[in-house]
Design goal:
By secondary structure, the chain is of the alpha+beta class. It is built from six helices and 14 strands. Helix content is 24%, strand content 31%. It is found in: Cytoplasm, Cytosol.
């Protein structure tokens, strides 16, 4: 009896006898974010396709070229190279799926929310499977309070694949202004948000150039496509402001709202956790409006 096709796999002749379809978890047409070109995307599990390999996302010029095996895919992105996979939106596209590796940012646009969710879940489930098979210690946490009690990084409600290195990642351009100029933090970076910190990772690097504690952020805001944070004396950079530019105003607003949500959640978790008198004094000081440096 022939096995059923994977979800999202279009029917066709000799589907189960075609080696090109082995390991396919999902496939279909999506648009590339940059130019809006429609391409046929194929999501494969480990060992799928003509050549063995890890889980990956491929795309072809058309479904016909994929079915007829007319040449290699136009592009292949290995999922184990991804820092983060997320749903995104910008001024032109409402339903993006974004993949961030250490050296590039790649995004595709779905037609609607249901299609976006289907691809996002397929990608993140496959990424989680790969990390679990490799013995990754990352796993979903039942609640932020359980995580805090166990001394682990809390999940503050953002929808995130368990295997992701960061809760959220955005590509930004740090400007030569304030700390950007004095600390030589300029150019294209990944703004990486975890439960307690934000880090700025240069392209083609794996470790952040600088990591800042969320509790050291005095304020943050956005204007048009720009986002800024102000940190106090306790920050690794010392006091000052960091200015950065996102793709557009929609992305800048998303960065602002998400980091504010993370700061609020961390504050609430910190207040929930039993503390010593000295720790309580520190938390109370953070909760008050900070004094000017």
């Amino acid at each position: 009896m022939a096995s059923p096709a994977a979800p999202g796999l279009p029917p066709g002749p000799n589907l189960n006898n075609n080696n090109n379809n082995r390991g396919v978890r999902k496939c279909g047409y999506l648009r590339k974010q940059k130019h809006g070109h429609k391409r046929f995307f194929v999501l494969r599990g480990p060992g799928g396709g003509e050549e063995a390999g890890g889980a990956r996302l491929e795309y072809y010029e058309s479904e016909k070229k994929w079915r007829n095996k007319s040449g290699a895919p136009k592009r292949v992105i290995a999922l184990d190279s991804c820092l983060n996979i997320n749903k995104r939106a910008d001024a032109k596209h409402k339903y993006l799926i974004a993949l961030y590796t250490k050296d590039e940012y790649f995004a595709v646009a779905a037609e609607n929310e249901q299609e976006q969710e289907g691809w996002y879940r397929a990608l993140t489930d496959l990424l989680s499977e790969g990390k679990a098979a490799a013995g990754s210690p990352h796993r979903p946490l039942p609640s932020p309070f359980a995580a805090l009690a166990a001394g682990e990084e809390p999940d503050y409600g953002l929808v995130t694949p368990a295997a992701a290195a960061y809760r959220e990642v955005w590509q930004v351009t740090l400007k030569p202004k304030g700390l950007g100029q004095s600390k030589n933090l300029t150019g294209v970076h990944r703004l990486c948000l975890s439960a307690r910190t934000i880090g700025f990772v240069r392209l083609n690097c794996e470790l952040p150039s600088v990591t800042l504690q969320l509790m050291n952020i005095r304020r943050c805001g956005h204007s048009d496509s720009f986002f800024f944070i102000e940190v106090g004396r306790s920050a690794a950079t010392g006091p000052g402001e960091l200015w950065m530019q996102a793709d557009d105003s929609v992305v800048a607003q998303n960065i602002h709202e998400t980091i504010l949500e993370a700061m609020k959640a961390l504050k609430e978790l910190s207040e929930f956790r039993p503390r010593s008198k000295s720790q309580s004094a520190t938390a109370a000081g953070w909760a008050r409006p900070p004094a000017a440096p």
